[in-house]
Amino acid sequence: MIRIAIDAMGGDFGPEPIIEGVIAALDERSQDFKPILVGDKEELLSHIPEYYLNQVEFIESSDVILMSDSATNALKRKESSIYKAVELVRDKKADAVLSAGHSGATMAVATLRIGRLKNVSKPALATLMPNINEGKTLVLDVGAVVECKPQNLYEFGVMGKTYAQQILNIKFPKVGLLANGAEESKGNELTKASFKLLKDIDGFIGNIEGRDIFNGNVDVVVCDGFTGNILLKASEGVVSTIFDMMKKNIKKSIPAKFGALLMKKRVFKNLKKELDYAEYGGAPLLGVNGCAIVSHGSSNAKAIKNAIYQAISFSKSNVNKTIEENILNHK
Questions:
Q1: What sections of 30-147 are H helices per DSSP?
Q2: Where are the alpha helices (DSSP H) in the chain?
Q3: What is the DSSP string of 185-215?
Q4: Are 304 and 20 in contact (CB under 8 A)?
């Protein structure tokens, strides 16, 4: 059974949606995992029905790293819920750690306390984005490493390809390097140097443009964390803006209102599901010697439940072993 350490105090809305997500996951897959809830035990108990008490474990913590706190101090706050949750993985008392708290703190503590995989110089935060083929495109890095070297991007490519094969069940994933043009000559100094290394990866298709992420031309997109984080935030903003614009224009037209009513149950419902981050649960921090899932700060119960499922799938796979075997050290 997979043991998952859960930072039950992190997140924008406190422990309630996190506990709800854990309970929802237990209702469906209690035979697959054991949740270890880290936080203020007294507060956590107030959210858990008595029926579930024998299905969870508790680890007491007296500190919570807030979203407004600095990630650089996370390693000093050893009584925080995220630090103690990560320590459970480090000490082999848990197979995975999950947090919807301070993402910077989670990545810093996970990287330095759990440690990196052999041959991995920097970890990468990977996220899924929808594409027109009703599939998902894996993008990494989206915020773990702002300043990258070519070797880092090469490693991201190997890690992304491995994750796509073993978790997303894509047999022959296409790997692309995000640049400002498809030609090999395009890009900046970093992408041009990275291109040469990424050629060693079977399935590397060369440079891709931003639109290729969403049109299904590629399965894994490699970029530095600065670019990837901007891409992620911009995409979230575009989705939100499009839905708001649709709502405003529908309200202006009676025929549009009627059409929207007919489409609501099928088209809009399916579209919302495709774009909802809660369907993905969280972003795996690839390259650490274990499993760390970083969830959105505003995660609801559904997102937490799916993040737990993601942690189960990752922990049962050979992702980390395969990454270690496949990464070459380019001097």
A1: 41-45, 81-90, 103-109
A2: 15-29, 41-45, 81-90, 103-109, 150-166, 189-198, 212-215, 225-251, 254-263, 269-275, 301-316, 319-326
A3: T-S-HHHHHHHHHHTTSTTEEEEE-TTHHHH
A4: yes
DSSP state of 39: E
Residue found under tokens 């929207």: 260
Q: How many CA atoms lie within 13 A of 192 on its CB side?
A: 5
Q: How confident is the model at residue 279 (pLDDT cuts 50, 70, 90)?
A: low
Q: Which residue has the tokens 């996951």?
A: 25
Give the global pTM.
Answer: 0.88
- Mind listing the domains of the chain with CATH numbers? 1-120+287-331 (3.40.718.10)
**In 3D, which of 111, 112, 116, 205 has the Cα closest to residue 157?**
205
DSSP letter, residue 117 = P
Rounded to whole angstroms, the Cα distance separating 280 from 49 reads 26
User: How confident is the model over 112-134, as pLDDT tens digits?
Assistant: 999 999 999 999 999 998 888 87
Alpha carbon 145 to its chain's center: 14
Task: Give the separation between CA 48 and CA 18, rounded to whole angstroms.
Answer: 11
- Asked, as a colleague might, if the bond just before 141 is cis with ω within 30 of 0, I would say yes
